[in-house]
């Protein structure tokens, strides 16, 4: 029971912290206000997260996990290689457009540099790794070096379009999927 309460507290605190960050930027993440809005003492938050930086780190981890899980689910929902990548890129573009914190983490804009740093490298690496794992699991006959190249290329192209959108998301998803399939099945 205590463990469940701690999980609920953590989730609630991160929900409110994300709201504060989106509404007011990095300065909006105040442990005092967070504690008031969650309905706990500041000491409870400090015990759970350490400090404001700990809350920010937990937000990064949760946001990254949600982002990557959405992409992985989109890949896994399709059996056709091209359709899987259209779905995955579409999911990444949709998630980053819908969630300001995700976009900030990937682009280094808004709250990201002050609280999280401007390096999206760990997210890009994790997205690449999950894509590689999916491809190797779903299409074991593919050349492993081509899988590595395709996954990293797709990830970097997608992030590039998140940072500097040039075309509608549907067109970007189709283009990236086409590149991936051509790398994997020349």
TrEMBL record:
* Chain ranges of the HTH tetR-type domain: 7-67
An example Gene Ontology molecular-function term: transcription cis-regulatory region binding
Q: Does this entry carry the keyword Phosphoprotein?
A: no
- State the superkingdom: Bacteria
The species this protein was found in: Pseudonocardia sediminis
The name on file for this protein is TetR family transcriptional regulator
The alphabetical list of record keywords is: DNA-binding, Transcription, Transcription regulation
Q: Identify the InterPro entries for this entry.
A: AlkX_C, Cro/C1-type_HTH, Homeodomain-like_sf, HTH-type_TetR-like_transc_reg, HTH_TetR
Give the matching SUPFAM superfamilies: Homeodomain-like
Where's the DNA-binding part?
30-49
Q: Which Gene3D superfamilies match?
A: Tetracycline Repressor, domain 2
What residue stretches are annotated with the HTH cro/C1-type domain? 27-45
């Amino acid at each position: 029971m205590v463990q469940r309460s701690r999980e609920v507290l953590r989730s609630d605190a991160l929900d409110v912290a994300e709201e504060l960050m989106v509404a007011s930027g990095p300065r909006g993440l105040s442990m005092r206000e967070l504690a008031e809005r969650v309905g706990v003492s500041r000491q409870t938050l400090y015990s759970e997260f350490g400090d404001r930086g700990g809350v920010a780190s937990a937000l990064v981890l949760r946001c990254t996990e949600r982002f990557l899980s959405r992409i992985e689910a989109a890949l896994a929902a399709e059996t056709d290689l091209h359709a899987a990548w259209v779905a995955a890129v579409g999911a990444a573009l949709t998630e980053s457009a819908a969630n300001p914190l995700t976009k900030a983490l990937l682009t280094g804009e808004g709250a990201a540099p002050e609280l999280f740093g401007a390096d999206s490298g760990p997210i890009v690496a994790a997205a690449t790794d999950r894509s590689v794992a999916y491809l190797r699991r779903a299409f074991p006959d593919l050349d492993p070096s081509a899988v590595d190249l395709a996954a990293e290329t797709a990830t970097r192209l997608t992030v590039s379009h998140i940072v500097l959108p040039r075309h509608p998301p549907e067109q970007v998803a189709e283009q990236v999927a086409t590149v991936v399939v051509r790398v994997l099945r020349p």
